[in-house]
Design brief:
Strand content of chain A: under 5%
Number of strands of chain A: 0
Number of strands of chain B: 0
Largest interface: A-B, 59 and 48 residues
Order of helices and strands of chain A: HHHH
Radius of gyration of chain A: 21 Å
Shape of chain B: elongated
Largest sheet of chain B: none
Helix content of chain B: over 70%
Helix content of chain A: over 70%
Shape of chain A: elongated
Strand content of chain B: under 5%
Order of helices and strands of chain B: HHH
Largest sheet of chain A: none
Radius of gyration of chain B: 17 Å
Oligomer: heterodimer
Structural class of chain A: mainly alpha
Distance between the termini of chain A: 78 Å
Amino acid sequence: MVSVLEAIGFYIGLILAIIGAILDLIGAIGLIRFPNFFVRLHAATVASIGGAAYPLMGVGLMILCSNIFTPPIKYFVAGASISTGILTFIAASTGSHVLARAAHRSGVPVKPKVCDFLEIDKKHQEGGKE
Amino acid sequence: MLEPVAIINIVIPILIPIFFVSFILYMIRIVKGPTIPDMVLAVDCLGFDLALLMALLTLYYRSPFLIVGALLLVLWTFILDLYIAKYLEKRELGE
């Protein structure tokens, strides 16, 4: 029988994994249903942070707080899983910002456009320079 | 109170089909995405979720060396983002 602290850690990891699966499905449906690229970015961030980073940490916690693997292998797998989760935090947020900037600069067509302050500012600046 | 091994054997076969449904939705967006950034965004989400699927399979099959691929997959996805963004902005890949 495991101790109480290990049981609490195991159940926290399990709940993180289950919430991650639900958020991943929500993000995928949003990626299909939303109208243009800059709105789809919200759904993609839900799917990659909520659907991949938190469950990876949950899997690490589950491995760390149970006796599935024997101790040296256990710490190897749990450490690799938690560090992959932290790396996903950095990579997903940076990647989506970089992609949004490149898409706006390369002139991706935005179909239902409500307002675009960056484009207005750029036009105003060019007009003022001449 | 169930043992952790029994809980894992029950829960992970329920979680994996949910992930496969979202993989299929990402595939639809990759195939019919109107612009290139849409496709790259979908490949991005697919890569992160494949890393998570690898971690779940490590836990389910009890084979510890599957987790090594997950770390490399996340890094590869990040590099894909950076290169596509650079190409879209400057129309070259740098030297």
